[in-house]
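Most newcomers find our protein records easier to grasp once they have seen one. Nothing more is needed to start thinking about how sequence determines fold. Here is such a record, shown just as it appears in the course material:
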Amino acid sequence: VRTLNRSDRGDLCLAYVAAQSLVTSIIVGVETEAQLQANLALMTKPCLTDEEVAVADQALPHAPEWLLNPAEWPNY
């Protein structure tokens, strides 16, 4: 997180997702107005650069497709 100049995991996650070329919108659930305001503030920050995305990709383990793709999640 600090290596990429981000304040916390939420900041890093939003900046990472926003940096993906195929992403046109980000939906984030919140429970309080304070969380909404914090997320809105994070979205005003620049997304990760290509170099920062590469650093994050190398640092994080590869998640399986079934975990990342909601279409693969079981219906409960």
User: Anything to note?
Assistant: The mean pLDDT is 90. Helices lie at 9-18, 33-43, 50-59, 65-68.
